[in-house]
Amino acid sequence: MQRGLFLADYRMGAPPSRTNPAGQPWNFPVPDPAQEEAVRSFVESRFAWLLATHAGLRLDHPHGWVCPWVYRTPANDAAALEAVQSGGAVVRVARPHGSPPRSPGMRVRPDQIDRTRARHEDGVMSLEPAQVEAYSSQIRFCWNAPGQVSTSATMVEVSTCPRLLAAVLAHCGLGRFRITQKARVEVEGDVYRSDGAAPHDWIMAGNHDTPPLRVVVEGWRGTPECALRAEYLSRRLNSSPAAPRGVLAGRRPAR
Q1: By the 8 A CB rule, do 19 and 182 touch?
Q2: 168-199, pLDDT tens digit by residue?
Q3: What does the pLDDT read at residue 218?
Q4: For residues 193 and 185, is the Cβ–Cβ distance under 8 A?
Q5: What secondary structure, in 3-state letters, does the chain show?
Q6: What gap in Å lies between CA 67 and CA 135, rounded to an integer?
Q7: What are the CB-based long-range contacts (under 8 Å, 24+) for 116-125?
Q8: How far apart are the C-alpha atoms of 135 and 107, rounded to whole Å?
Q9: Chain segment 39-82, per-residue pLDDT in tens
Q10: Is pLDDT at 101 greater than 60 in this prediction?
Q11: What's the Cα-to-Cα distance from 26 to each of 15, 16, 70, rounded to whole Å?
């Protein structure tokens, strides 16, 4: 019914990431940037309907609002993964890595992009305040739309988080999910470690994209990961420099 508001030859998905190394060909339609006002009116009506019966908002993969990963429509399902991995032309406020010349909505300069990196990697080297504000306008629409949902009532699930999105989330005061089973605990500053969480983040052991925690822990048993996790947990439970962390890390849980 609203098919005319979307581009016929492009789809939106997620590029390769830690959670999904092959990428995710969602096959979502891409709004036509030439019809911005009509698209905005359509989205406003959807938000008004949604927020009439809900007090909060959950944004999954908010890069779709800030810097979407757009690929050409594949000829068939077998070509979908290849298409989403390579990416295609970029529209509106899309990822700049594969952006063609004169791409609508391009808000970073060529000198700000590391073109030696793969398209799906985070090649934006720097951002200026005015650019962050411009990129933020897209995601701000989510709670400025009819219904007036607040940022404190907005939950954000981030899997793909390029520099653009991280800057926008910080600028707008939005948190993210810190899924501890996905953390690389040996890497300082890893985005899933609980010690890096801010007050507006949510810390959780897993979500719908991850296996049950018991299955994960069984997979760690007898591997270096188990010792890494124990050592990290001992630091989190006992922060005193004089504490016998080795004893705590080596303690076996009671059955």
Answers
A1: yes
A2: 888 888 888 899 999 999 999 898 999 989 88
A3: 93
A4: yes
A5: CCHHHEEEEEEEEECCCCCCCCCEEEEEEEECHHHHHHHHHHHHHHHHHHHCCCCCEEEECCHHHHCCEEEECCCCHHHHHHHHHHCCCCCCCCCHHHCCCCCCCCCCCHHHECCCCCCCCCCECCCCHHHHHHHHHHHHHHHHCCCCCCHHHEEEECCCCCHHHHHHHHHHCCCCEEEHHHCCCCCCCCCCCHHHCCCCCEEECCCCCCCCHHHHHHHHCCCHHHHHHHHHHHHHHCCCCCCCHHHHHHCCCCC
A6: 8
A7: 119/15, 119/86, 119/87, 119/95, 120/15, 120/16, 120/23, 120/69, 120/85, 120/87, 120/95, 121/97, 122/162, 122/163, 123/96, 123/97, 124/96, 124/162, 124/163, 124/164, 125/163
A8: 8
A9: 888 888 887 887 778 877 788 888 888 888 888 887 777 787 77
A10: no
A11: 10, 12, 10
Which residue do the tokens 């951002």 mark?
Answer: 127
For 209-233, how does the pLDDT look when each residue is reduced to its tens digit (9 = 90+)?
Answer: 889 999 999 999 999 999 999 889 8
Residue given tokens 């605990």 in the structure block: 185
Would you give the end-to-end CA distance of the chain in angstroms?
A: 58
